Amino acid sequence: MEEFTLQDPKAQEALERALGLLIRMNETGTLAFLEDAVELLPDSLSYLMDPRLLKIGANLAYLLHVIELLEPTLITVMMSRLVEELNRELTPERMKELPRVGPVSLLKAMSDPDVQRGLGIMLLFLRVLGRAFHRSSQELMGLMEQTEKTLTELRRQRAELERQALAAQTA
Fold this sequence. Notes:
mainly alpha; 7 helices; 85% helix
């Protein structure tokens, strides 16, 4: 490893750049944020090992695994057909004159088997999405509330320690 001295132009340039970066970080409040983060990091790491948080991570890994298990050929064929149909139906001419849809035309469209299948798929997707969102939001809200309480307590403890240190310095 090459050694540098303060007289070395490369070292001086690097120090000047680092000092400029530190000044900008201080002016923007980034340096204060990093100081707070470093102080909270040891306590925060223990909270990252919370079983509930680990469970959420495991669930995300499971979801990714499920996505991997989906048959790629099936998805590819479905997406190819979807793109073909969109290209056939969404022509520039049709996009200029989009059909207006009202209650009567919506009821008429409901008699089309393709519309029925499409709505069925959309409703199924929306049902699954709503159920999954409701369940996950219940789990996450509890975790978020606990995390906020913990951070509030850590901030309170830090402020108390700072007050004690200040009192000790003035005494």
